[in-house]
Request: fold
Amino acid sequence: MNLDLSQEHELVRSTVREFAVERVAPVAEELDRESRFPYELVAELAELGLMGMPIPEEYGGAGTDTLSYAIAVEELTRIDSSVAITVAAHTSLGTMPIYLFGTEAQKREWLPRLASGRNLAAFGLTEPEAGSDAGATRTRAEARDGSWVINGSKIFITNAGTDISACVTITALTGEGEISNLIVSNGTPGYGISQPMHKLGWHASDTRELSFEHCAVPEGNLLGERGRGYQQFLEILDGGRISVAAMGVGLAQGAYDLAFAYAQERRQFGRPISKFQAVQFKLADMATEIEAGRALVYKAAWLKDQGRPFAREAAMAKLYTGELSNRAANWALQIHGGYGYMDEYAISRLYRDQKILEIGEGTNEVQRMVIARHLGL
Amino acid sequence: MKIAVCVKQVPEGSRRIDAATKRLDRSGEGALNPYDAYAVEEALRLRDASGEGEVVVVSVGPASAADAIRKTLAMGADRAVLVSDDAAAGSDLVATSYVLANALERESSDLVVFGYQAADSDGAVLWAAVADRLRRPVVSQVAELRLESGRVRGKRQTEFGYDVIEAPLPAVVAVTDAINEPRYPSLKGIMGAKRKPQETLTLAELGIEAERAGEAGSRTVVLALNEPPSRGEARRIEDDGDAAARIVEFLLEKRLL
Reply:
């Protein structure tokens, strides 16, 4: 057994860490306060090849493995979740379906601009009345005169409405009990994108409600086989869980780092609060859980890279790190005391950004359902 | 145009002294000397501006220095040469410059670029010693560099302003951290780094006798190496809105104002 990361993995980590500390950290608070999408950072991330890491080079990506990608997402989240989710949703949810299920022509059409980060892609699964019960999708697409005519709506969709968003892949009923995936280009008549939604955290990430009214897309925009939409999005979510689990570890690590530093600076009763066992035990627990969570995430990524089944481990990693990040953000803020509740302390942003990690891409409850199914229950 | 860049792996984080060997503890994580990143960046820019040529990275250090070298290849350097030999451990300036100069002779580059100092030992003289051994002109503290018709022109940062110094190639330059902003390695660069040629050479392969390197080849002996003395009892002033006044009061009390 060898638990060493390769030199490439180490270099990915140190490079993304440096980038996050030097480029993201100085603007994270301002982007959050102004709910401003980080176009400049996305351009820089694109330049470095971080907007299409697991996509092969022939399609404009960087051709890295899943583990490298997870490490990069972890390191970004350690500093800022909005930037991290922009990368993760674009890669795992927006670009991956086209890479995995697209025809060669679809790949040639979309991947070079998506994997290079020139454009962003989104994935539209959740509907106002189809969340955890994703099969209950109501959006319909009818084949008519060589087009698919779409009617329905989607909600909480990341990256759909930026100035550089190119397309969204949506799930839709294409027949009775038949779900298929369709690619809809931004700018298609009948495709409406709401104003950015107001949310508790992830302020600098783009979240929209989408509406489709007699929205006609070419027949060729069907992604993969007709009627395979349900299996396809389950596969996409399996992979996506690894990156969201990496966000959980990254957020917990970021919260821990802030608390660790603050505990040594802050003096009460004549000494740094890090000298009190009540604080030490919290930090010790956090460090231990982070270590365990990271091992789960890396194992899931490693299994995927080996071409082995990974869905069970990915769900476990997502569940564990989602809840771990909750505890870590909570304790880290507690260690900060009143200052931690103030906007000028980064921990307050991490605290707000954390909650969605237990909801997005499958709630904690859905992860438990998935895990139970894998246990044979 | 062939450019050689000399780089060093330095310990990451705080420095620890190994009392037994009187050397820096290099057992922990290492990183590319931050000043060397500017040297690599400048070499890459010169190569790319001229549209041809090669950037070769040269280092002397333990086998683990390959990590730091990997970063330079990921940034865009074309190949790397690492001189690694147990007999070279503990080399002082004289011995290190001898080994490095031998490795550079073998490359016979048009230009040798150094970062002006290393973050671990803070010597800031190795480039001068190497230039002397190679019998080449040297321009140090370079904040701006140009190459034109077989000459190098360096704008040199000094206490009193700038000197502009020109020298014929081949030459040695030592650059400061004001010269550029080093790029981050791209993902493609990182993935491609291991496919680039990387040589590891022993002293024997360079034709260097063991007694010219390491402690045997050194002209200086470290008599003592100590942690800096503790600063003693520090007085801490928490700011409750009157910190400035209290600092002034303290300085007056000590008759410093």
